[in-house]
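Example for tutorial group B:
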């Protein structure tokens, strides 16, 4: 029962990230990386404060190992977010998205070696098919993969994917040792403070506040979608295997493609249609056999 709920929440994260990345790209190009990250995490910290403040003393008076795990989560997630935001700012979604699939094996390997979390052969095979389908969907041209890493923002996206894979794992681990709300609140608070200090040191804090008010139509839906995704993602990983949750949530690329078809009237190449079919069926079957 709990595993099935975790799988359902992974799909919620997938849906929210499908919309969230669209707004993140717009906001980073409009106001900048640190500015967007400051708003998105400050928003999350404020929203979660009423649900987290009562448990804060227990977190800081608890096990040193638990504090260390949450500390690593904060640090790694900060650098991963900066790299991802920069990749979205300078690169194309069609280039960045397939590279971000590297998050899945990184998270899965950490879950296996550190937590001893194992998944079945059929699940591993379906994850491979899912990632293959998502890669095909993301590639606008058939032979684009040959020059993928030479594209603008590609290397940043790769290092961001590795870091985010580590962050995903620690978010799952942190959610299990404390709770998903606390793991999100602490990481949001830490990143918001760091970004705020950086903006003050650069003399950009006042301008950032002005930019926030003038661009709230983009920043607010971005923050709502991203925070809903991270909360659903954290709860999902506390209930279901980390590798499967990460793989299913990465399927937000499908949402981006559907939005492109519905809103922008985009046309898919034959390999993209094939990839979409493979990805959708792989995700459905993976979810149905995980219980």
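The residue assignment follows.
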């Amino acid at each position: 029962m709990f595993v099935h709920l975790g799988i359902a929440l992974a799909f919620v994260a997938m849906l929210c990230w499908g919309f969230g990345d669209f707004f993140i790209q717009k906001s980073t190009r409009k106001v900048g990386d640190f500015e967007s990250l400051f708003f998105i995490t400050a928003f999350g910290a404020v929203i979660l404060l009423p649900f987290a403040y009562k448990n804060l003393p227990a977190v800081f008076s608890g096990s040193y190992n638990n504090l260390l795990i949450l500390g690593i989560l904060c640090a790694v997630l900060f650098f991963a977010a900066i790299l991802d935001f920069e990749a979205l700012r300078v690169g194309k979604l069609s280039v960045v998205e397939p590279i971000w699939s590297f998050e899945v094996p990184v998270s899965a390997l950490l879950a296996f070696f550190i937590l001893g979390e194992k998944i079945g052969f059929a699940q591993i095979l379906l994850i491979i098919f899912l990632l293959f389908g998502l890669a095909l969907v993301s590639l606008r041209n058939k032979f684009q993969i040959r020059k993928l890493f030479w594209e603008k923002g590609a290397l940043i996206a790769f290092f961001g994917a590795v870091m985010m894979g580590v962050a995903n794992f620690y978010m799952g681990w942190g959610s299990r040792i404390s709770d998903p709300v606390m793991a999100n609140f602490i990481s949001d608070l830490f990143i918001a403070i760091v970004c705020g200090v950086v903006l003050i040191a650069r003399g950009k804090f006042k301008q950032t506040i002005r930019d926030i008010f003038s661009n709230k139509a983009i920043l607010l839906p971005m923050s709502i979608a991203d925070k809903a995704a991270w909360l659903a993602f954290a709860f999902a990983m506390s209930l279901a295997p980390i590798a499967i949750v990460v793989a299913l949530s990465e399927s937000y690329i499908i949402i981006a493609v559907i939005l492109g078809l519905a809103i922008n009237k985009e046309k898919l190449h034959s390999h993209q249609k094939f990839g979409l079919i493979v990805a959708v069926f792989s995700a459905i079957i993976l979810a149905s056999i995980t219980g």
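The first helix runs from residue 2 to 31. Compare this with the pattern of hydrophobic and polar residues in the output above.
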